[in-house]
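Reading group handout, session on sequence-to-structure problems. Before we discuss, look at one worked example. The prompt was deliberately terse, the way you'd type it at a terminal:

> structure Thymidylate kinase

The input record follows.
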Amino acid sequence: MAGLIIVEGLPGSGKSTTAQGLSTWLSGQGVSAEHYPEGRHDNPVDFEQVAVLTNDDLVRFLGELPSSADDLIRAAERSGDVWLVRHGRHPEWPRSLRSRLAEHDSYDGSVSPELHMRVLTESWRQYGQRSAPAHVEVLECVLVQNPVTALLARFDQPVEVVESHIRGLARAAAPRRPALVYLDAGDPRATLEQAAAERSPEWLESVIGYHTQQGYGLAYGLEGFDGYVEFMRHRRSIELEIVSSLDLPTLVVSVDERPWHVRDSEIQAFVGDHLGIDDRAVSGW
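And the output record:
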């Protein structure tokens, strides 16, 4: 059985737990499934740690790093008029090469918002056109979170541009029979405070800086943890608007005071109905 389930939501809403649980539950229903957690470098559509190079960039790299030329040539993939190098898949490469490639990272490097959207859209287009594997793919963050974060937090693009881009990605994936589960935890402050308490100070410093010291945060004068919370409130509002407009089966789950097993059963019923699974036995994950 083929299919695509995408799990979205703000940090701390339970995306990873839900996506992994869905994969396990599907396996228990006799449906082969593969879970791609956030950050997995072989994601079939997203560009986690992928450099985007022009022809001139690639030629310059080959000249400046001759000892790594063979690695670059073997790894470079053509995408229109640019080259993609999935450096996250090669931890064995020299630090000098990986550092230079990180400067051209699709999410965090010197890539324009227009080029970022173009290469991501092409990736989703190719994904939609490939033959689907004989299993269900469960993805996190790739349709809503990552585009919204990159285009809004980093590039401060108009909301209309963000919405149009995401709708285009969803259309491109249509042949894969996608369905979306969005976990809504309500006002994000409490969830973000809990995440900050559970994670390292370095993580907190990094996410605050990302959301306040560039793009939208810089334009609107956001500062510190309160600024991070304010951005996430804005992001939640935008994401809820976007998911309601997408032309694909969507379930918005309120992450409220109900026990998790109640929410689990709601998600299982939705996914089971979408995939045509007859036996939807309720079992929490």
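Points for discussion. First: The beta strands are 3-9, 33-36, 51-53, 77-79, 82-85, 136-140, 178-184, 250-254. Second: The chain has two domains: 3-46+111-275, 49-106.
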